[in-house]
Amino acid sequence: MNQLLIASLLGGYFLLLIIIAHLTSRSATTDSFFTANRKSPWFVVAFGMIGTTISGVTFISVPGEVGNSASTYFQFIMGNLVGFWTVALVLLPVYYKLNLISIYSYLEQRFGFYSYKSGSFFFLLSRTVGAAFRMYLVAEVLQLALFDALGVPFGITVLISILLIWVYTYRGGVKTIIWTDSLQTIFLLTAVILTIYYIFSSFEWSVPQTLQKIYEHPYSRIFDWDLKSGKYFFKQFIGGMFVTIVMVGLDQDMMQKNLTCKSLKEAQKNMLTFSAIFVGVVAMFLMLGVLLYIFADLHAIQIPQKSDYLFPFLALNHMNLLIGIFFLLGITAANYASADSALTSLTTAFCVDFLDINKRPVEKRSGLLRRTHIGFSLLLFMVIMIFRIINDQSVVVAVFKAAGYTYGPLLGLFAFGFLTRKNVKDRWVPLVTICSPFLTWLTEIITRNFTDGYQIGFELIIINGAITFIGLLIIQKK
Length: 478
Fold this sequence. Notes:
By secondary structure, the chain is mostly helical. It has one domain (3-397): Sodium/glucose cotransporter, CATH 1.20.1730.10. Helices cover 77% and strands 0% of the residues. It has 19 helices and no strands.
């Protein structure tokens, strides 16, 4: 694809985002940055959350991962659905009742100062790592499609990507994100639907024959009943449920959008509607993955060694110009829908939880907000560059593996708060939450080396949360 065309498309796309940011950030305040003044339409939030949740990892890595683990990822998504319902019916009522801006302030009310700071710290760590992983993947694609030909180093590509996010989010915050995410979701879904249509049209089979081919293909296998396997059904299902409870219900990024709705009822409608659409969209990505492998096989195309490159390689080199254009717009939209909301939520959590911005003079808040936003932008850049050096696996695997370690303490803290009436020795909570990931790592090592081939998969986050929970029991007040 012509580099001038690619640059023009991306330039036009970001110009559109900046226009939306300008319209939504007029008369912006710190309250609109954090909560959008709690006036967001629930259906707009639900649609925009699709783009945030899908991210570049799902867009690229899930179709390619089909070649490694078939469609067993859908077992995880089935667990996600139950997790979304739990968030809607259990967690949201608590957050609305307490009228929270940062959901981690619940921990201060429940346990105390140090528990509150520990919860917010682990969110900052989790979201920074997760956002960096996602941005890394898409920066790689943009580097391959455009910047390599222009002789631009990878580091500059990442810096440009983060700068563009900062430009359209630094004033409006979540008020802007609600609307830009909806636009990005449209581009993302259009790219997938057009690619599926193109592949269907390229086959000489009828639609029923194509669907039959997909159904019979070994990569369409969903269920794995091998207890020792990391893809065992109940590991994936239960892991998916708890990962969603933690990565959505205990995550400031996702909850910040829900808390912009006008009422609890509208926030719950948003979550339930979003969850149904989300399951359908991921099923579509898995089907796309099977189709990509069938397409490559029929046309005798040698697929890339790294599965993450399958979709971009075929879309940009072996399909028509329209597919290439929408692939780039789709992957860009998927990346920025996830990364922009992550950057906004990181800024929110740090300003509210660590800088006590609401207690500072009004005239000083905007400057503090801007400096924090810049600081997290630079931090994301550094983490992405480190990840590029050390990563050697599929990004979707790396994301959830990291989440198992960083979100586990949050699961333990909130579970202890919701499920018990016990109090803890608050000063000891940071030690418990820091030791828990380390003990989880030891558990994984021991399990791998001293059992008959048993592999810990998505249940890693449950083990981590359970260790934190036990640690809190040990330091409970008599």
